[in-house]
Amino acid sequence: MKRAIFINSSDDPSLEDLGRFANDGFHTVMLGLDAGSQFLLDAASQFGIDLQTSWLLGRTRDEIEAGIGAGCGTVLLDGEELDPLTRAMSHLLARDFADAANKIGLRIRP
User: Fold this and answer.
1) C-alpha angle 56/29/94, rounded to 5°?
2) Which fold has domain 3-108?
3) Average pLDDT, whole number, for the chain?
4) Which of 15, 51, 79, 81 is the right S-S partner for 93, CB 3.0 to 4.6 Å?
5) Rounded distance between C-alpha atoms, residue 22 and residue 108, angstroms
6) Residue 53: how many CA atoms within 13 Å on its side-chain side?
7) Where are the domains of the chain?
8) What is the rounded end-to-end Cα distance, in angstroms, of the chain?
9) Are 53 and 3 in contact (CB under 8 A)?
10) 76 pairs with which residues across the strands?
11) Helix extents (H) in 34-96
């Protein structure tokens, strides 16, 4: 089974950012604006993705809820601007993609 990083396509991560996740063995899946947990479940089924070892990086409550609903770890990007409930729901908070990659990397390395 593969692990994936789910990122909203409107966030437009750089190749350097995507490379950080690839170095830790993640495949990157770009999401549309309205992707919900069913999209994640369908992608996992179609592409052999293990959602329990995958992460969703999001900026909104809807994105974080989709990741949680699908069984992914979640990272709230730029979390200081969002409400306390969304911050509390997220598994990790990160300033940007580089910060998220570092924090996820710390979680998966022995």
Assistant:
1) 35
2) Rossmann fold (3.40.50)
3) 86
4) 79
5) 13
6) 14
7) 3-108
8) 20
9) yes
10) 58, 93
11) 37-47, 61-70, 84-89
Whether pLDDT at 55 is above 90: yes
Chain centroid to Cα 23, Å, comes to 16
Give CA–CA dist 83/102, Å, rounded: 24
In whole angstroms, give the CA distance from residue 32 to residue 11: 10
Confidence of residue 33 (pLDDT cuts 50, 70, 90): low
Find where tokens 């089924």 sit.
45
55-58 and 26-31 beta bridge pairing: unpaired
Copy the structure tokens of residue 11: 């966030």
| pLDDT at residue 24 is higher than 70 | yes
**Would the pTM count as exceeding 0.90?**
no
Residue 96, both tokens: 């940007």
Q: What percent of the chain has pLDDT over 90?
A: 39
